[in-house]
Amino acid sequence: MRVAEVFGHVIGADAPIRLVAYDGSKSGPDDAEVALRIESPRALARLASAPGTLGLARAYVTGEIDVEGDLYTALSALADVTLNGVSKGDFARLLATVGPVWLKYRPAPPELEARPRGRLHSKFRDSQAISHHYDVSNRFYEWVLGPSMTYTCAAYPRPDATLEEAQEAKYDLVARKLALEPGMRLLDVGCGWGGMVRHAARTGVHALGVTLSRNQAEWAQEAIRREGLEEFAEVRHLDYRDVPETGFDAVSSIGLTEHIGKKQLGSYFRFLYGKLRPQGRLLNHCITQPHTVNKRKVDPFIGRYVFPDGQLESPGLLMTEMNDAGFEIRHEENLREHYALTLRDWGGNLEQHWDEAVAEVGIGRARVWRLYMAACRLGFELDNIQLHQMLGVKLGEHGASGMPLRGWRAEGVW
Predict the structure, then answer these.
(1) Could you confirm whether the keyword Isomerase appears in this record (predicted)?
(2) Cα–chain-centroid distance for residue 3?
(3) What is the pLDDT of residue 3?
(4) Residues 396, 279: Cα–Cα separation, whole Å
(5) Which strands make up the sheet holding 206-211, listed edge to edge?
């Protein structure tokens, strides 16, 4: 059986994708919108050494597999393989074809793969993991994320809203949930490039942000100076566990919990609880698994190339950990469709700046990002992953929450 025919059997005869292999073989409809090109026998060796998403990703990152047409469309056609891996039966067929190739080539993993050292979720190792993903290039992130420099799920007020409108709506939503008012104090942990910090500061809130990425902290501080917000805003290159101040009116955690680890969730929420005054609020915004997982499970491509040591938990577990840390849970919602739209727009930005991005970070890293954003967009659309916001309050004396009987400042939130 020739190479394209083997792959065609794996992805299924009805898949709307054309396969073209280096041995001249072809499979699939000639008029397919996208084509998967197997450029080298080394791609087969990748699949033999790491079946499923990791092998496919390694081959794509190195250019041993390429895609003609839109990558998201190709992944949609390959959804069963990319999201669920290759079945044992299909892998056996592949192995019969690629086994001799693997013995000949045995390619080493690409150098872009992260290999953090030290104890899992120690400060030293967490710093390495965060640096791998975020200390890439601020210029690169400006092209991908757009003017807001916001690297978390937006909240689209309308289907046709721009990415910038949606990111501003997200920050406004967080501010309303936290009931931020002028003169209050906000702690934003894992603050990124300081988007929430600057949003709060523009309304007279005293906001402190912390991040493990030096590049992010430097960019954020410059943005604060540029906007004349020094009186109200500060971003530090600091582990959230080293923040000395207490008595904050509110804490926002937007996209940090994914990096914490299951065993550390209790201490994480207890730490944030200790930073709040009585009746202070926590808004936790993070990616989750749709179902409870008993073992540490991260897509190997994401773990090696995108978020080293990342870990996704179920919304039920997160809510339990928040509750057990002392928070009263007051509101929760799933924004997964919004994250699919956010990734769509980030992917569009990358394509618009593709040549500049390649020149800035290299073709391998640019391909990592293209693949990661397209695959995650599909994951959110298919409910393979979700995005949840949970609002908790630290009760005061006699159970006083400080919450209104219904909703909060702004009509139509509940």
Answers:
(1) no
(2) 34
(3) 78
(4) 5
(5) 233-237, 206-211, 185-189, 248-254, 276-288, 386-393, 328-334
Could you read off the pLDDT of 197-239 as tens digits, one per residue?
999 999 999 999 999 989 999 999 999 999 999 999 999 999 9
Q: What count of Cα atoms within 13 Å lies in the side-chain half-sphere of residue 412?
A: 1
Task: Please enumerate in sequence order all residues whose Cβ is within 8 A of that of 328, keeping only pairs 6 or more positions apart, or say none.
Answer: 392, 393, 394, 395, 401
Q: 260 with 334, same domain?
A: yes
Residue 279: closest CA among 164, 372, 119, 397? 397
Residue 242 carries which DSSP code? Answer: G
Indicate whether 329 and 211 sit together in one domain. yes
- Of 135, 132, 137, the C-alpha closest to 114 is 132
Is the domain of 341 the same as that of 220? Answer: yes
95 with 127, same domain? no
Do residues 254 and 138 both lie within one domain? Answer: yes
pLDDT digits (tens, 9 = 90+) for 140-191: 999 999 999 999 999 999 999 999 999 999 999 999 999 999 999 999 999 9
- C-alpha angle 299-303-306 in degrees, rounded to nearest 5: 110
Measured between alpha carbons, how far is 296 from 313 in angstroms, rounded to an integer? 9
Q: Across the chain, what does the average pLDDT equal?
A: 87
Contacts of 307 (CB under 8 A, 6+ apart): 129, 133, 258, 259, 298
CB atoms inside a 10 Å sphere around CB 115: 9
| Counted domains in the chain | 2
- Boundaries of domain holding 33: 3-105
DSSP run (H or E) holding 123: helix 123-134
Statement to judge: residues 85 and 187 lie in one domain: no
Higher pLDDT, 126 or 29: 29
pLDDT score recorded for residue 410? 46
Total length of the chain: 414
Q: Which two tokens stand for residue 267?
A: 């201490």
Give per-residue pLDDT as tens, 255-297: 999 988 899 999 999 999 999 999 999 999 999 999 887 665 6
